[in-house]
Design a protein that fits this description.
Number of strands of chain B: 10
Distance between the termini of chain B: 9 Å
Largest sheet of chain B: 6 strands, mixed, barrel
Strand order of the largest sheet of chain A: 2-1-3
Largest sheet of chain A: 3 strands, antiparallel
Low-confidence stretches of chain B: 1-5
Radius of gyration of chain B: 16 Å
Number of helices of chain A: 3
Mean pLDDT of chain B: 86
Radius of gyration of chain A: 14 Å
Helix content of chain B: under 10%
Distance between the termini of chain A: 22 Å
Structural class of chain B: mainly beta
Order of helices and strands of chain A: HHEEHEE
Helix content of chain A: 25-40%
Number of helices of chain B: 2
Oligomer: heterodimer
Low-confidence stretches of chain A: 85-95
Strand content of chain B: 35-45%
Chain lengths: ~100, ~140
């Protein structure tokens, strides 16, 4: 696997590419708002109503998997409000 | 419409406090897969955070949280941040007796400079969260409906 496992951006990019190539059109039509865990080791996808459900199911399917979490139809898996308003993004690990 | 006197005050359980900036905080105990490793932190309740718990990496590393992989979160200005995600268990350390809640397991976002409890955690409480001059929990049955 070429993905650099210590870099969350690289893992995220790999997961996003798999999602866009294999699942995005169908999932955005059928499962908007749900969570999907993309296993970048085997390109499988696991759905869940919550982040925890999707990731727990994905791990149960592949104990050695490495997953990228996506909220279907949203720009990110999570949103953050007030607490980070004044924190510059270059101070946050993984940016 | 209910008057203040309709609310059974004795059914409210204090679980937290307002910090110097007026933000609600709760002292939580976070643990991972290691049976004896945990940390206690005053986490801020942020209803604008859609996740379960955000925890600075420096606090999370000693706990040995089981890594899931990654996810992106979106800041208030719309910019995305890629970060690691792990499985963690959160218990509330309240001064009250008996223990307020059974510990809850969820997805921990390893990022930021402060511990944040988000709406996925709040929903998982299955209780009413009351924030006023203090932070309290109420059983749904005790809240006038």
């Amino acid at each position: 696997m070429a993905t650099h496992l210590t870099n969350p951006k690289a893992i995220s990019d790999a997961g996003e590419k798999i999602y866009s190539r294999l699942y995005k059109p169908e999932y955005e039509q059928k499962h908007p708002g749900k969570f999907v865990a993309i296993d970048i080791t085997n390109e499988s996808a696991t759905l869940g109503a919550t982040a925890g459900e999707a990731l727990a199911r994905a791990r149960a399917d592949n104990r050695n998997g490495l997953f990228h979490l996506i909220r279907i139809g949203h720009p990110g898996a999570f949103e953050v409000g007030l607490a980070h308003r004044h924190v510059h993004s270059n101070r946050i690990p993984g940016r | 419409m209910h008057s203040k006197s309709d609310w059974p005050i004795g059914m409210f359980t204090p679980i937290g406090f307002l910090d110097g900036n007026g933000h609600p905080r709760v002292t939580i105990r976070v643990s991972g897969t290691h049976p004896t490793a945990f940390t206690e932190v005053d986490a801020m309740i942020d209803t604008g955070f859609t996740g379960f718990l955000m925890l600075p990496i420096a606090l999370a590393l000693p706990l040995g949280l089981a890594l899931y992989g990654t996810g992106d979160y979106i800041l208030a200005d719309g910019s995305p941040i890629s970060c690691f995600l792990a499985e963690g268990t959160v218990g509330i350390q309240a001064a009250s007796h008996p223990p307020v809640l059974e510990p809850v397991t969820g997805v921990v976002v390893l990022a930021g400079e402060d511990a944040l409890l988000g709406m996925e955690f709040v929903r998982g409480l299955q209780k009413w969260l009351v924030i006023g001059s203090a932070v309290m929990l109420a059983d749904p049955d005790s809240v006038p409906g």
